[in-house]
Request: fold
Amino acid sequence: MYLFNLDKLPGQQSMLFFHLLARMGIEALVLVSPKIPLASIGYFQNAEEEADLQFCKKANIPVMRREVGGGSTYLDENQIFHQVIIRRDHPLFSRKISENYERFSLPVIETYREFGIETSFRPVNDILTKEGKKITGEGSGDIGDCFVWVGGILLDFDYQVMSRVLKVPEEKFRDKIYKSMQDNLTTMKKELGEIPSREEIKSVLIEKFEKLFGKLEPANLTLPMIKEMEKLEKEFTSPAFLFKKTQRIPKGVKIREGVEIIYGIHKAKGGLIRAIQEVKKERIKEISLSGDFTLYPKDCLEELEGKLKGEIRKKKWLNSKIDEFYDKEKVQSPGVNSEDFLKAMKVEE
Amino acid sequence: MTKVEDYNMPEELYYHQEHMWAKVEGDKVKVGLSDFSQKLAGEISYIEMPEEGVQVNQDKVVGSYETGKWLGKIYAPVSGEVISINEDAEDDPTLINKDPYGAGWIFEMKMSDSAELTNLMKGEKAVEWLKGEITKHERGKNK
Reply:
C-alpha cells in the first residue's frame, strides 16, 4: 500500500486524486490539502440546489460533485485530508460499512490525542471532542474495484465562507447555520489556541495509519497521473455531472451527527408559511416561524414558537402541541391549520 | 427460503459476486440487492436507478445508492437491455431494506446471452460463497 504524502494541490486535484487512484485500483493513504478553496457536494446532491453558485463564482470557489455520499462541504488549505483507498478484497475492508468508519477513524482519533485533543467516533461518520463538538467529518464510497474512505483534520475553519457557499432560501437561515456551526464545529486552533505544524500532524497521522495498515511505501504524483486528473476534472465539472438531477431534496444542513438546521416553506390555502429550526437529537432547539398568512390574535406566533421549543419532532406530539396553542389562545388562522405548520416544519412522521 | 446465518437467500435465485440477485424467467431477469448486502450496508437513503432502454454489460456499474454517507454501486448481473425499474423503490429506497427479494427489487432486464448465467452462483455454490463472505466479514470485524 502506497503513501502519497502530498502538499497543497492546485485546482480540484486534492479531491480528484483519490477518485483517480480508486479507478486505477491503487491502494494508498493520501494526505493532502487544497491550494485553493473548494465547495464539494455529495453524489446525490445537485450543485444548483445546494450551492450559492453566484457567490462561488464571485469568490473563485469551484464547486465539484464527488463520488462519495454526504452533503455540502467547504474545503480549504486549513484542512489536511486523509484519504484511504483499498481494494474491496483487502482484509481490512468490511461490507459492514459502519465498521470501516469506526476502524479507519482510529488513527485520526489517536492523532488528535497525540496533540492533546480527546476525541471519539460518533456513528455514522463524525469524530467529536469530549464536549460533543465535531472536529472531523467523513465520507466513503465504492469506486471501481476499491473502497474509499475520506475525511479531514480541521486545523482552522472559515465558518463565514462555509455559510455563504450554501444555497439558502433566505438570509436568516444563513445566520442560523453560521451560529450552529460556531457552537457545534471545532478545530485544532479552537481547541489548542494555535495550529501545530502541518508536517508534525502528518507525520503522526502516518505513524498511526501504519499501525493499522503496516509500513506504507512512499510514492509521488507522476506526470501521467496529473494528466489523468485533468481528464477527470473535465468529467467532474461537466454540467451533465455537476447539475445532474437527483432524488435528494434539500431540506437543510446537517452540522454534525444529531444537529441539523432544517428549513421549509409550505404554501397553505391561507398563505405561505416559512419555518427554520435547529434540531438537536430530534428535538426542536430553536424555531422561527414567519410568512404572509393571517393569525388572530396578532403577534401570537412567538407563543407558538415557544410552545414548540424543546419538543420532540414527532407528528402526533407536535400536532397536539399546536392544537393546545390554538385552544388556549383562541387562535384563528383562516386557511392555515396545524397540518400546514407541520408541512412547513418538514415533520413527516 | 434458505437461511445462511442471519441472511435470507432464496434458492431459486442466481447471485452475482457484488451481492446482486437475479431472478430468471425466460429471457427476463429481475434484479435486486441481496439480504446480506442490504443488512450490512444499512438503511438506503437515495438510489439512482439505471435508465430504461439502455444496454448494460455483465459486471458493469448501472446505478448507485447511498447509505450512511457511503455510496454503493448497483451492478448488472448479466448483459442486456433494462426494460423497467421499480419506481416504488426509487421513491422509497428503504423498501430494499424491508423486502429485498420482493417489493424491493431494483430493475428488470431482457437478457441478451443466457450463457452468462454460468458466471453467476446458484444453490449450494451460492450458499458456500455466502458463507465465505460472512467469514470474511467476521475476519474484518475482528481486526
